């Protein structure tokens, strides 16, 4: 029942300060010139999709439709240089911090920073760490870090795909280094492959990385079925590339028939979720419904219950349709708070059954 479990939601308005605007001038560079040439060739006006309104929309939805058992936590400390350097090189971090207070393009994937972006990014990473610390300390049954900029595309040496710092990887590394977690499961259900998280833990047998995503050439084009890690980490990366039309039923099959046995074999001490909401049918790819998100959250919650006393922390990634983003997060929080996922059906089946039940009696037939 919703409200039977406690969920801490970590949020900070500082993260609204990350606000790249392509109409404003950026630091001149080869990257800036390359991005400008790309934008000029577009046949429509392009605006930065990862904007402050994403967090504001989620917060407004939660304020208007509060979930029993969910409490908002604010004021988490920004991640420290030491915490960040567990997954990012010092050369990259030094370059990133040198851009504080400026507007700059970081790569041709159109990842950019505004004057307050570095503070927002370290705050995002800090809130992901706080979410993990909350569940490890038993302060809440589960946690959800509502953060931006997102993180799972950020690689050890570079920013990519709107991501500056890899929030979920930073949280996982902190849990391993400071909180006694020996085996960490990361589930990434964003529509895009978490290339940065994969690279960071590519050879690490202490982290099982499970990623469902839209198959290449969909951005970033990585995450092939055969990519399973290397060295000591071989077999600890599980990629599930799916066609763009895939929806609830395909995701449920993959989660039940692949993720569950993999987790049972691995036996994690902590479960983290890179929770992207762009798989929703109104967003960038896939045909997942709100009940589909409830299903995925329910399966992951059951894995955490079975192996690590329910310790699960979600970290926000993508999701760009503001309505489905807010409602999707809300659906996941309902499950984390104790709600159950309904039985899934293909889109339209429930409506078809309703129509059949309504009209069949006119033909003198009982259903």
* Secondary-structure content class: alpha/beta
Beta strand %:
5-15%
The coarse overall form would be globular
Unreliable parts: none
Number of strands: 10
Strand arrangement within the widest β-sheet reads: 2-1-5-10-9-6-7-8
Mean pLDDT: 95
Number of helices: 11
Radius of gyration: 21 Å
Distance between the termini: 32 Å
Helix content: 25-40%
Major sheet characteristics? 8 strands, parallel
Please write the string of helix (H) and strand (E) elements: EHHEHHEEHEHEHEEHEHEHH
Question: What can you see in these coordinates?
Answer:
α8 (248-266) runs parallel beside α9 and α9 packs parallel to α10. The protein has 367 residues and is an alpha/beta fold. It contains 11 helices and 10 strands. The strands form 2 sheets. The protein has an 8-stranded parallel β-sheet with strand order 2-1-5-10-9-6-7-8, sandwiched between helices. Strands 3-4 form a two-stranded antiparallel sheet. The model has no long low-confidence stretch (mean pLDDT 95).
